[in-house]
Amino acid sequence: MTTFPDKFRLDGRTALITGSGRGLGWEMARGLAEAGARVLLHGRSHERLAPRLAELRAAGRATDGVVFEIADRTAMRLALAAAGPVDILIHNVGERDRRPFAEIESADFARLVDTDLSAGQALIRLLVPGMVERGWGRLILVTSIAATLAAPGASSYIAAKAGLEALCRALAAELGDKGITSNAISPGFFATETNEALIASSAGERMRLRCPAKRWADPAEIAGAAIFLASPAASYVNGHTLTVDGGVTATYMV
To answer: What CATH code is assigned to 8-191+220-244?
Structure first.
């Protein structure tokens, strides 16, 4: 008999998590692997992925590595063709350009939008035909609370992340009758390696106090949202942005 907790299992599914060599991508990949999925870790080099692959395999998890630069569409296409069918995509890759708007040249703006937004569209175009053919798929785009709460010095990043949320809704509208759901995860303040210097700064302390939880999130706390949206339990959740921020965007001041 199938029980309700079984609806959160991902046995028999293959999940690709981009940017999963470290940080939030790694934590989501590890969570999906523990839920039974075969996970495809993605990174720029085999050397970067090797320790993570070894860790999952030592725990008895099914996993393989997929290596390509996110901006290289040809390498992307060849790597995915070799990887085989993908049921679940978590698009997590993203870069930031922390400069005032006036200092970001048009070419720099376009490059970041290509990395953070357009590359996701290219990736989805490669994977969706197989999902449609199989009648099942999960698209999960990792955005940011910066998509709706702007701050100075990150205009290209904010624009790209807002675009990802819009793309999520557009795909929900187009693919919902094909057994495919499209959702987004919007993280708040997470204590990843990338944010170590920020956390130690006065700005990082203000961010901690701004959060009702009064702390930065542990990266592992993102995994539950990813497992839920990828699972059969979320079969009627479509076009939604699931915010994981300790209450930052729900509050005016605390």
So the answer is: 3.40.50.720
